Amino acid sequence: MSVHRYEDALNHLLPAADYFEKTGSGLSGCETLIAAAISFWELSRKKEAIAFLKKEFSKSKKEGYRYLPLIKGEMLITALMAIADTDHFLRNFPEIDHAASMVKTCGTTGLEHALMAKLQAAGKKEQNELTARLAPIYKRILPRLHIRTFGRFVLRTGGREIDVRAFEGSKPLMLLKALVHHGGTDVPKEILINDLWPDALSKSGEKNFKITLHRLRKVLERDIQKVFGCCYIFQKSARISFDMEMVRIDARRFTDLGKTADQLARNDRLEQALELYDKGLDIYKGDFFAEEPYLDWAERQRILYRSRYLEMLSAKAMIHENLDQADLAIETWQTVLNLDPCLETACRNLMILYADSGRFKKALNLFASLTAALEKEMDAKPDPRTVDLFNSIRAQKRIKGPGGNESARVL
């Protein structure tokens, strides 16, 4: 389009933008704002273009718009490239993530071609600086790497599950698992080498590590433009990290949700805490790295995650009790006992709930099951507190007789 066509377009777009803002026409307003911004950009009126883009993407994010029917992918790409052309755009344009997500809904091939064309058109002296500027844009359109460690081990990029056979051996996968195990951030290379090649000499261990890391990246970043560097795993000095903006690990999410839920529970925000406990517990699909039963470091962490899962279940059960949701509390405590039949705190709480609802026989049967489990698994007897509770419930049952259903809280 000629300069005059863009100027003419603005003569229509700007009054339309004002009209849509006054009438509250959100979707039409967003479409008009982005069209006006691109017109400003083509007229080299960059300051006005960026102001309109900020307003549009802020509004579309607030309204939850992921797609603008009248705006083609090419226009969104032009908008995103315009943003990348401004100084300090990551700091000054917080709406960049939403802008990139809208481009992704239209397909990313066009943006990838635009980024590469811009790099190829730049001079050699400019390319390094331009690559650094464009890399954050490129990374925002890449699929995230999802690592599932609980239950069946799964690697997924976007909607594609990675076939573990593509790694051509076990070492690349073991390297990835070791990196997950050590937290995934700033892990010293020597620790990973020791995990995978404990008996190797320094030089051979270093060589093995370098080859294995290359093979791991080759599979994970199969379709990645290499000019923008490593996108999922990077090395800085002698430390290895996941790019946590690009990588999602279920174990990390499980831990974070549990911590936040604990804090909410301590602040008596019980319903919010319950929601997060449910989300965290749903992530736990089975043991951590269950496919590695003989790996010592995996077994240690497996026990910790299993214990944390039981803690979160117990916390959830207590919240159900505090909210007078007896049936949900009973169901949750029973889940705890199914996983650990020797956990006396769970048994006592469940006995109390059954007794409170007049189901004395169920409460007494729980004690019998606990006694048998303790003797079989630990060669131990129930705690005196559990015995006292059992005797108290048995006495109540005798007083009430068969069919008694009056609720009486047992302490």
Mind explaining what this structure looks like?
This protein is mainly α and 411 residues long. The protein folds into three domains: 3-141; 146-245, Winged helix-like DNA-binding domain superfamily/Winged helix DNA-binding domain (Arc Repressor Mutant, subunit A, Orthogonal Bundle); 250-400, Serine Threonine Protein Phosphatase 5, Tetratricopeptide repeat (Alpha Horseshoe). Helices cover 66% and strands 6% of the residues. The protein has 18 helices and seven strands. The chain has helices spanning 3-23, 26-42, 46-63, 73-84, 89-92, 96-105, 109-121, 124-141, 171-181, 189-196, 202-220, 250-266, 270-283, 296-322, 326-339, 344-356, 360-378, 384-400; strands spanning 145-148, 154-157, 160-161, 187-188, 233-236, 239-242, 247-249. Strands 3-2-1-7 form a four-stranded mixed beta sheet. A hairpin with a 2-residue loop joins strand 2 and strand 3. Helix 7 packs antiparallel against helix 8 (124-141), helix 14 packs antiparallel against helix 15 (326-339) and helix 17 runs antiparallel to helix 18. The longest helix has 27 residues, at 296-322.
**Could you spell the SSE succession in H and E letters?**
HHHHHHHHEEEHEHHEEEHHHHHHH
Mean pLDDT: 90
Percent strand equals: 5-15%
How far the N terminus sits from the C terminus, by CA atoms, comes to 81 Å
Helix content: 55-70%
So what's the overall shape? flat
Number of domains: 3
**What is the class of the largest domain in the CATH system?**
Mainly Alpha
How would you name the CATH homologous superfamily of the largest domain?
Tetratricopeptide repeat domain
CATH architectural group of the largest domain? Alpha Horseshoe
CATH topology of the largest domain: Serine Threonine Protein Phosphatase 5, Tetratricopeptide repeat
Query: Which structural class fits the helix and strand makeup?
Result: mainly alpha
Q: Could you name the ranges where pLDDT drops below 50 across 5 or more consecutive residues?
A: 406-411
